[in-house]
Amino acid sequence: MADVGSVDVELEVMVALRSFLGGDVVVRDELDNQLTEELPTVQVQVVGGSDDGIRLDRAFVDIDVYHSTRADAIALAARIRGWVLTELRGSTTVAAVFGRTGTISRPAIRPYENTALRRVGATYEIYCHPVS
Predict the structure, then answer these.
(1) Which of 9, 62, 73, 83 could cysteine-pair with 118, CB 3.0–4.6 Å?
(2) pLDDT tens across 104-113, in order?
(3) Are 63 and 85 in contact (CB under 8 A)?
(4) DSSP 90
(5) Residue 19: strand, helix, or coil
(6) Taking the CB of residue 104, how many other CB atoms lie within 10 A of it?
């Protein structure tokens, strides 16, 4: 049996999201110093969660969208929300099985110091376990 927390939820979500969004969107866990040159960028970070002590993880995942305009950032964040709630739910990768997904905090404008871009973020609850 796999250890609790053996799924790197951040990595698995990034890989699946890259496949969904295609090559025109940068998906990463850490931001680059030249962010304005890599728009749109989506940042995925696990920000907490819990587990059942056996093999089921309940991860809280922040997904922030950085884009050149507010409208574009909002549209991309809405597209990602739809993906998390419909396509990620019930899917399987080589390492993970994704179960229930839900929204903790729906996409909303989040402050960012650089006025040359806009940031929209959301927090999701994602249940997953290792592939057996």
Answers:
(1) 73
(2) 999 999 999 8
(3) no
(4) T
(5) helix
(6) 14
